[in-house]
Amino acid sequence: MYNFSKIKSYVIFVTILLISCSDETKINKNEPLEEKRVSKVYNLKLGHGMPGVSPQQLAAEKFKEIVEKKSKGRLKIDIFPNQIMGTDQEMIQKAIKGDLDIILPPSYKLNSIVSSAFYLDLPFYFENRKELYRMLDGTPGGILKKNLLGKGLVGVAFWESGFKHFTANKEIHSPADLENLKFRTAKNPFLFEQYKRLGAKPYFIDFQKIPNALKDGVISAQENSLDSILNLKLYEHQSHLILSEHGYIGYLLTLSKKVYDNLPQDLQETLFAAGEETALYQRKLVHKKEKDYLEKLREVKVNIYKLTPKEKKKFKDQLKPVVERYRERIGFKMLELSDQIKSEQVSISNDEIVIGLDADLFAGSAPSGFSIKRGAQIAIEEINSEGGLLGKKLRLISKNHSGISVRGIKNIEDFSKTQNLIAVLGGLHSPVALAEIDLLNKEKIIYLGP
Predict the structure, then answer these.
(1) What is the domain extent for residue 353?
(2) Which of 59, 346, 388, 411 has an alpha carbon within 20 to 30 A of 279's alpha carbon?
(3) Do residues 289 and 384 both lie within one domain?
(4) Considering only 38-42, 256-260, 278-282, 379-383, which range has the smallest mean pLDDT?
């Protein structure tokens, strides 16, 4: 006779054992998949056009070190300098297609993709690096990165070569000194127009071909950063270095969007964090090396001198028509935000009288707003050139309201606290002006409508 109690116990035991084995099997099957996901190594290629001894290459090596350490080996980076992966334009196209993972193009090469990249080619616009970094690391730089995103590129952080300077075989102190001078410029229509306006004969010549072009007499002058002037040995063909700081060469560490989108989120964040950290390292490196570059150039008997503020103004004044033609292409918002940053850097003195501008400078009526602003600037420049008003210089401070009444009211509140303010110019939006009337009356601010 069967002992059903024992049989029942046995069946329960076997069932539990089978379930346990089944669960264990599932866990063992899943473990390799999870391990594979976490431990997958992504090999990325970084290409750039600068020599192996350049600050860009040293920074690329630092970037590689930081990325591989932060990712615990899940990201590996191979670096290809000196146009090994093609010209800058070729590398940009490869990145867009997803055939090259990371690139480091000079800012002036990106204008073929987005016109806002002409921003860094504004002549005699950036006063110093502190001001410039606020722009690049702030909203203006963010606008440029956002524009690139729509073209298949992910901008990470701005590195640099630094400010540009003139080199020639004679002294240059004014636009007249550039008259009929065969001048090399990068393949950039904005730069080409600038030098035509200054009276030079501009030539498009590739970066690597500059020394031979100087040697063969194809060109007799050029512009570049100090590191390029030294590393390309341009001093062998140019007797004068004019420290003009007339433009800036930035390098934007950029990822292929196709590659970026296929990376896990934590590795995307790693690349951004490493890029921004390296930017600080690279900028300091360039600053330090620039002192050494100048010393080495002096050792090889290059004549070095700096443009005075008055000399810079001559160039800037002559180039204004070119800048105005490119304002819309660069972007009204980008330039207005930059102008505001510049204005914040200079405190209002007791010898100044302030006029405010409250208009749409970002949105649909931005062209009209900028026309009003430009007209006011021209009038102020004329008045100041004749001695100012009551012995004081006039100064324009502009604020954007984008056609939104709340923003306009906030602007008037800010203007009411502005030292030496005597009046505010308005834009085209009557609803905004009507919303501001009570506050204007309360603060006793003169309002001038268009």
Answers:
(1) 347-448
(2) 346
(3) no
(4) 38-42
